[in-house]
Design a protein that fits this description.
The chain is of the alpha+beta class. The protein has ten helices and 15 strands. The chain binds zinc ion.
Length: 343
């Protein structure tokens, strides 16, 4: 039998050939040599019996990599589809529970967002449009994983249990705008009142289940990332959700980047955001773009660069400041990009 999703993914690999019972692809360990039109040197057994691992071997003598196909191998090849990784993970656990001990699936949940034209929401939509100089309608917010009301969100997703006491949730519902986190396990609630009536600029709301120490509570603007693209990936990070949206929507830098990802720390810290994202998506060659708050000095980013260089290759590092405001969470006419090249 075959693991359908895993086999489908392998078909997307360079120099793929199905030779019945096994397939050949370009080796993810040595990268292969030779002509590009030949089948790859990496051979993987794809017809397997229950309890039998997917054995692989690279026939290039200089390499000779061999072993059992694991989820981390798929991730090295660029697989991020959680169902594919889960299929292999489940299979390998049947073979031997220790085979996959390192793999912790971050399941991506399919929550629905709903933004109704009711009184609270009208004010919140207006806040966003005024702040960013946009003309979003309610239905546009979904494209940015923005959820205006907490209670509407819980209701439509049939979630009955609240993560906090009811009076706190009342405040979040009324005074914050929600941003669905990278793995859709949190609603990052941004207080939009002048006095910060909820007590915190950001409150991370665990949507279901228990919070864990290493949960990632960062916001990512939805987009497409081609991990097989050989060019460095452009990682853009700002501290806040409005700041990254402003940088994304209201500057020209997006048009100059080919393969890009846009993130907001929301209090997590630049280092955590950068290292986690690179690890999760297997991004080793990176152009780093920091959309800084004005009060943060360049020295902080120099230290970040030092910390990151053991984990990835930073092809370039650029820090941007807004010359006429404290961050990039503004409309086009209130942004003047000033950049510092650190590398
Ligand atoms: Zn090889």
């Amino acid at each position: 039998m075959r693991l359908e999703k895993v086999c489908d993914f392998l078909k997307t690999q360079p120099r793929y050939r199905d030779s019945g019972g096994q397939c050949q692809i370009r080796c993810w360990v040595c990268g292969d040599s030779g002509k590009n039109d030949k089948p790859g040197n990496m051979s993987i057994k794809i017809d397997v019996e229950p309890g039998e691992p997917m054995v692989y071997h690279c026939f290039r003598s200089a390499c000779g990599a061999s072993g059992f196909l694991r989820t981390e191998d798929l991730q090295t090849m660029g697989c991020t589809d959680i169902d594919t990784l889960m299929e292999l993970s489940a299979w390998n656990r049947e073979v031997n529970p220790r085979l996959e001990k390192k793999f912790h699936a971050k399941e991506n949940r399919g929550y629905q967002l709903v933004n109704l034209a009711i009184s609270d929401n009208l004010g919140k939509l207006k806040y966003i449009n005024t702040r960013l100089g946009t003309s979003f309608e309610f239905q546009d917010l979904r494209n940015y994983k923005i959820q205006l009301g907490l209670y509407e969100f819980l209701r439509i997703n049939r979630i009955n249990r609240l993560a906090f006491a009811e009076d706190k949730c009342d405040l979040l519902d009324e005074y914050t705008i929600g941003f669905l986190s990278m793995y859709s396990d949190y609603l990052i609630c941004r207080d939009i009142t002048k006095k910060i009536v909820t007590g915190n600029r950001y409150t991370t709301y665990r949507i279901r289940g228990k919070a864990k120490e290493d949960d990632m509570k960062i916001y990512c603007i939805p987009g497409e990332l081609d991990i097989l693209d050989p060019n460095p990936v452009d990682i853009n990070i700002a501290e806040g959700t409005f700041s990254i949206l402003g940088a994304y929507l209201n500057t020209n830098l997006r048009k100059k980047q080919k393969n890009q990802i846009w993130l907001a720390n929301c209090g997590s810290g630049y280092k955590t955001t950068l290292l986690h994202t690179s690890r999760q998506f297997g991004l080793l060659d990176v152009n780093l773009h920091i959309w800084s708050d004005s009060e943060i000095k360049i020295g902080k980013y120099e230290r970040l660069m030092q910390d990151a260089k053991d984990h990835m290759h930073l092809n370039s590092v650029t820090v941007y400041y807004n010359g006429i405001a404290e961050d990039f969470g503004h409309s086009k006419n209130q942004i003047r990009v000033e950049s510092v090249e650190l590398k």
